[in-house]
Amino acid sequence: MASARDGNLAKALVDMGQSIKRRELWLYLGWRDVKSQYNRSIIGPFWLTLSMGVMVLGLGVLYSQILNIDVAVYLPKLAIGLIVWGLINGIVIGACRVFISAGSALRQIRLPVSVFVFQFVWGQLISFGHNFLIYIVVALVFAINPGWVVVLIVPAMMIVVLNGFFVSLILGPLCARFRDVPMIVASAMQIVFFMTPIIWSADSMSHRSFLLTANPFYHLIEIIRDPLLGRTGTLENWMVCIGLTLALGVFSTAFFARYRARIVYWS
């Protein structure tokens, strides 16, 4: 039994290694996926940027009045929060269909299974890049100069992307096997959005709630948002995110190794 598990793990690691070697393939396919959503559109994927920008402006002006916060303080935090949430939510929701959508390709073409996960995560990063233009506009309008701490965005993005990849290795096979799970995940993410300080601020809480500190999405957003606003982020934010990445990495690899061979039959 142990040798079988070791064999499955080795095959899973080889699968991911082969996918990395074929990066030209999934880089192209990820870009094609984003582009294909906007065929015959004049501005193409920049519709993502426009729709997100309108939402940021509308919610920023409205809730700054409701919460009685200076719009110059509130809107940048809201903008970054919504942009990062768009990436995280897009990965979590989309991961549920990563193997379902790739079903025909899995059955017809001999490729590493994880290629489709790399392709999917890369496509989400491209969409995030379009939305990130909103932050640049907001930073120029409100004269935000984050300084040297902005370099922390690099390890922060690596952590978020790695977690997204690991979550996809779990949700992809799980949702391919149980088709009710995507609806459950979508409903759960709607609730999590309101429980995460995106529209509201964690500073508005009179005391640090366990529901906040135990919310991994809060920490993932903060390690990106703080450097973009000129702060380093708290040690708690970084430690939780690093611990989450390690735990998810181990669990997702074991999960993928256990069920990798069955994905083609489920998709």
Automatic annotation (TrEMBL):
The chain crosses the membrane at residues 42-66, 78-100, 120-142, 148-171, 183-202, 237-257. GO terms for biological process: lipopolysaccharide transport; polysaccharide transport. The keyword Lyase does not apply. It comes from the Bacteria. Residues 26-226 form the ABC-2 type transporter transmembrane domain. Its main location: membrane. Belongs to the ABC-2 integral membrane protein family. This is ABC transporter permease. It comes from Rhizobium altiplani.
